User: What shape does this take?
Amino acid sequence: MNTTLRSRCIRTLAAGALSAALLTAGAAGTVASAATPKPSPSASKTAGSITVKASSTSVKAGDKVTFTGRTKGLPIGTKLVLQHKKGNKWTTLQASTLVKQGSSYSLDAKLNDKGKQDLRVKYDEVVSPTVSVTVK
Assistant: This one.
């Protein structure tokens, strides 16, 4: 009976020590993760800006329009695309370019759809203001 009591005490102490170790490790992990700030994915995507200007605000169907502007917060070589608005949806056109030294860009596009075209330049979640071009 003395041996049974002794083995119970040893098991109880071992279980207690193991529980204390697990609780301490868990608390330390929680403190470490709470102290380390995690980067916000939306902050990195919206940490830039794009300006845009069209070479002409009125063109004939099929004529070329040059879009120029500058970027802030986007690295050199970043691919920019031209989009136009159809209804309530933005559609990417075939025109694209890369950000050059000095954070500038120039993009040529032929506009074929007649009427007022709302256009913008986009990279990921960063978009320029809308510019309008009337196609006759």
User: Anything to note?
Assistant: Residues 37-45 have pLDDT under 50 and may be disordered. The beta strands are 49-50, 53-54, 58-59, 64-72, 79-86, 89-98, 104-110, 115-123, 126-127, 131-135. The helical segments are 2-35, 41-45. The first strand starts at residue 49 and ends at 50.
